[in-house]
Every structure is written in C-alpha cells, then in structure tokens.
Amino acid sequence: MIDLFRQRIVETGRLPLFGFFTAFIVTFVLTRVVVRLIRANVSGWFGNVRAGDTHVHHVVFGVVLMLVGGIASLATPDAYVALDCIAAVVFGAGSALVLDEFALLLHLSDVYWTEKGRASVDAVFVAIAVTGLLLLGIRPFGFADAVPDPAGSVLAQAYFASTVADLVLAVIALLKGKIWTGLIGLFLPVLLVVGAIRVARPGSPWSRWRYDPDSRKYQRAVRREVRFRRPLIRAKIWVQEFIAGRHDLIPPELLPRAADAADRARRRRLARAARKAAARDQRRAAARTRRSVADRLQRRAFARGRTVSRLRTRAAARRWTRRLTTEQPPPTPTPTPRPRRKLPTSRR
C-alpha cells in the first residue's frame, strides 16, 4: 500500500492534491458532526459562535482559511513540497467550510436545515467526485497524457476540436437537467454523448424550450423521471441525511404560509369531525325511529289478532323511516288572525 501510494501520489506530484482531498473530507465530516450536536442541544457541548447579537457562520472561517491557504500556496517556491502540502490542507479545510454553506451563499438566507440547504451537500459531493477523479489521474476531455505540439499541428487541431465538442455536449447535458452527467462527463466523454442524446428532465430549460407538454418526448421524460430518477433521488437524499442530518425545517419566508396551512388543516379536521358526529346522530335517530315503528306495527298486528314476522316488521319499519327522512312534511298554514269587531257603544 505504501509503495502504491508513493508511485501513484508522491512520484506523480499529486501529494498537495491528496492533502487537499483528505482535509476537505475530514473537515466536512467534522463540521457536520459539530452542527448536528449543536442542533440536538447536547448537554456540555458548545453552541453557535456569536459576536454580540450576530451569528458568525462557519463560512466566514472558511473564507479566511481559503485566503490563507491560497496565498501561502502561491508564495511557496516549488522546491518546498512540504509547505505546499500544508497550504493545500489549509485550503481544503477552508473549501469544505465554504461549500458546507453553499446554500447560504446561493439564496442569501440561512437555509442550512431547510430543503434548500441540500444544495450545500450536493456541492460538496460534486467537489469530492471531481477531486477524486483528478487524484486518480483522470484529466478533463479525455486527454490525460497528451503531449504538447505546435499550434498548427494536426494533433493540436484535433485536441481543440474535441475540447469544443465536449464543452458543447456538456452544456447540452446541463441544460437538460443532468448535472452529474455534465460534470463527470468532462472526465469521461462517453457520458456526455449519452446525456446529450437522451431526453431532458421535466422542468429543465431544454424541456421548457423544446418539448410540448403533449408531445411523446415529454411524456417519456415524465415516465423516466417517475420510474428511474425519483428512486435515485430518494436514495441520494437518504445518503445525504445520513451524513449531513435531516433538512426538515421550514424556511422563514414560508412560516406565515405554513401557519395558514395548519389553520386550514385544523378547520378541515373540525368540519370533518362535525360531519361525522352529525351522520352518527342521524344514524342513531333513524335506528330509534325504526325500532319505534317496528314496535308500533307489532302492537297493531297483535291488537288485530294477526301474527307478523319480525323480518316483515323490520322491512316495513325501514320503509316508514325512509319515507319520513326523504319526504318533507307539508308546511302548516299559519292562521290569519280575524279582525276584532268593535262593540257598539251605547247611546244615552
């Protein structure tokens, strides 16, 4: 293992990149552990960093570390590999702190634990994937071992044409909503061809510009989204929440809307309970009416000296109850008051 590390990392000059990659992953994992402990209010654990009433996000420390690591890497001579590695480690730690709050920079709002905060985890995963490919020796556009040639040579022209073609295919894949295919395809150009040929995702710019909602391509894209894409997204969200915690808070701008939705849901529950109670009272009243009608019919038949079966009595009671519930009784006319006659006055 040590010999392989020396051959693939040290001898190829990728030791600073390895330091950046390791520091990036370790810092991201430790940061997520710390913020999850802060969110859980673990006793004996420190809280958020504050300067007075201002909450200092860890993106501030990330920017400072990136600045220090970048300047140190530029100022370090090429012969000092150890110092260059230390600068790369500092830069990787700062990059992890910055990308961990990428959603805050994107939305200019504290959406760390909301659904929008998943953009930070996506950015971190993309950075890890791209850095891992570079660390393995895979270069963009498929020319890992290209030898520099004069500008007018055939090889230089072919390299330039293939680079332009890969960039065009990458832009098409990104416009079709295939982020991972477009980014990883820069290192594996076959993925760019696949992403550019296949149908776009519903809701992507390419779909809005080129697909009619009633077209076969749009319907096929929707079916593929439901059948393949959504299970992959659910799996990705499960992995993200396992590593970075659940993003289940409501954004501040949606809190009034959430309160209104909760109030509407409460009113719907109360109305549903009232309807159920009214229906239950109606069923009980109908059952009492049926029992009273059945008893009355039994007494009438017994008074006439006849025997009526219980089934016929119940059927007659149901008919009487149905008639009473469906037919409205005629309105009783209100009697008009008669005019009072005046008594004749006696004349003297």
Explain the overall architecture.
Residues 311-322, 338-348 have a biased composition (Basic residues). The chain crosses the membrane at residues 15-35, 55-74, 81-99, 119-138, 150-173, 179-200. Residues 311-348 are annotated as: Disordered. Helix content is 67%, strand content 1%. It is mainly α. The protein has a two-stranded antiparallel ribbon. A hairpin with a 2-residue loop joins strand 1 and strand 2. Helix 2 (15-39) packs parallel to helix 4 (81-99), helix 3 packs antiparallel against helix 4 and helix 7 (154-175) packs across helix 9 (189-197). The longest helix has 49 residues, at 255-303. The radius of gyration is 39 Å and the shape is elongated. The relative contact order is 0.06.
Structure, briefly:
The protein has 348 residues and is mostly helical. The protein is built from 13 helices and two strands, in the order ααββααααααααααα.
Write the layout of secondary structure elements.
Elements: H1 2-10, H2 15-39, E1 50-51, E2 54-55, H3 58-75, H4 81-99, H5 102-107, H6 118-135, H7 154-175, H8 179-184, H9 189-197, H10 205-210, H11 216-244, H12 255-303, H13 310-326
Antiparallel strand pairs: 1-2
Please describe the structure with a list of short key phrases separated by commas or semicolons.
348 residues; mainly alpha; transmembrane; membrane; Integral membrane protein; transmembrane helix
